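FAQ: What does the model actually see?

It sees only this:
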Amino acid sequence: MVYSYYPGCTLKNKAQDLDRYARMSAEALGFSLREIEEWQCCGAVYPLASDEIATKLSAVRALNDAKEKGQDLVTLCSACHHVIKRVNDDMQNVEDIRTRANNYLKLEKPYEGETKVLHYLEVLRDRVGFDTIREKVTHPLTGRKIGAYYGCMLLRPSDIMAFDDPENPTIIEDFIRALGAEPVVYPYRNECCGGYVSLKDKSLAGTMVDRVMESAADHGAEEMITACPLCLYNLRTGGSAKKLPVTYLTELLAEALGLIPEKKAEGGAEDAEG
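And it is asked to produce this:
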């Protein structure tokens, strides 16, 4: 199975491992990620102004590219996924935005939200299947107690993202089990870490990070995984609480599939920037 793939800016720069391990694991699991040609930054933040069209156009271009290829569009960065899926919803349901976006782009055929947008985790759960992944694991992560950190972008607004239960998600915990590790459920796993306010109010962001870290540690987590590059950086560098190691979920997947050597999760700022 071949999917159109939108990596986004961070995965091509500061989060190259998240991208590389995702591609490696995809091939091992029987599907391919074909990067969209000449994609542009999605903007990283969904524009809330009703008359804002220009900042949505790059997402529409990516969506239309996948449509023309007859492929679903897969994203991996939580922020990119959030923006692209919400813009796709606009193109399906908001006539004014749909009309003006198509007028700007002057496409051969108007784009009307036909593309299905999937997060990489949804491909693993719904297309590959966690049972199949469990069968392909060659290096199970036995004995490791891992807390899933969802953050806020994957789950909300729930009626549009339709990713999982926004209050009690299970997809990453099921993923952790498929790799042979023990998932640790803790209260702050789907609360914001403060990544988007870290430049404006570092103290507030640090407090939010501490709450997440302390919540995970208090419930028995020995390490954490996330799908969001911004969350990973913020969790590693923000706050003053004792740090649990934080890793991209695709790194653990590649490790369990035997594609990379076992590597202890890191918690330092220099690793988040690598």
